[in-house]
Amino acid sequence: MSGLTAQGFVLKTINECEAEIEGALRAAFGVHINTTAPSVFGQLKSIFAEREALLWEALQDLYNALYPDSADGISLDHCASITAHTRLPAAYSRISGVTLSGTDGTVVPAGTVLSVDGAPDVTFETEEEATLSGGSATVDCIATETGPISVSAGALTNIDTPISGLDSVTNPNAAVEGRDLETDAELRIRRNDNLQISHAGPTEAIRKAILALNEDTTKAAIEHCSVFENYTLETDARGIPAKSIAVVVYQAGGVTDRDQEIADTLMLKAKPAGIRPHGDISVDVVDSQGYTHTCRFSRPVLVPIYLELDLTVDDDYPDNGDAVIKDLLVEWGNDLGAGVDIVVYPSLVAQLAQVAGITDVTVRIGTDSGPTGDDNVDIDDGSGGDVEMSSWTHGNITVTTS
Question: Is the whole-model pTM more than 0.70?
């Protein structure tokens, strides 16, 4: 049986359509009519069957568009809107605190285009006008195209819009990456995640509520959130007081821009009444009655990584190979995230494959200067103490070639 059934919508195939049309033709014109493909009746049967099959496929698409698990495109947007979910738009990457240097008093207008050294297609523009004072100024920049554009610190150095008096630019901070338009699959997963949890109380609900702030893609992403609870009447081994929760949050690039949002969400929307938030960061929150509360949370403990590489190289090794290696490892290491161990072989060493001319490598790595071994570095995910996160800087990486 085709159509709407107790098992859902059942599609009528083109073969079934042809069989029904042939039966109708024989009933109207006699059972002995010729309905083979070359005949007139056969040609009409195929034409009508194809058009009818297309209508059945349209009905199936319409039926599927009613349900979020099978809808796609704008139909999925409509389904998601019933539960107050909207597709996350594409967002621009941003770089804060770009340093402009040149002649004192030079005016750099908004929209001045800058690009990445070695990647001229990766362009950013200044978001506001800036005047050089004392030979420099800082300005925020936004990418000229949406999407997750990665720019490491110190890479934005080219001036594409010539301005008299502006001599150089650089970015002390890496880019906070934007995003592409949320896909159908991503929207389905996010909607299901939001609907399948309690909205306040349990630790998992608290974590989901804070991570849901990432729906605002114009700000730095919240890359990590851990929630710990102490439901006993004694301070626990982590130092969390009795009847308290401890939330550990990390924002992309180590920024603190979203502290107020995090505190508001934790204090006013997510945590249970009567439970005290514990942590090193203190933010005041004002409720709907005008009362002020102190919300606390923490950030991961940054573990500095010291790395020494002794490389054997040949003639293919580039002149700027040492700098390229440092850029690669700093970007890779700082993208590992909270609680992720540093695996030397093969993960770290595999990054060197992007640089030509390296024939051998000796690795020394540790959390103190002058490392001597090449063992993996353990980064605590909170199961044994504080939530940790490895911190990589160019100054803590030494590259020696021979």
Answer: no
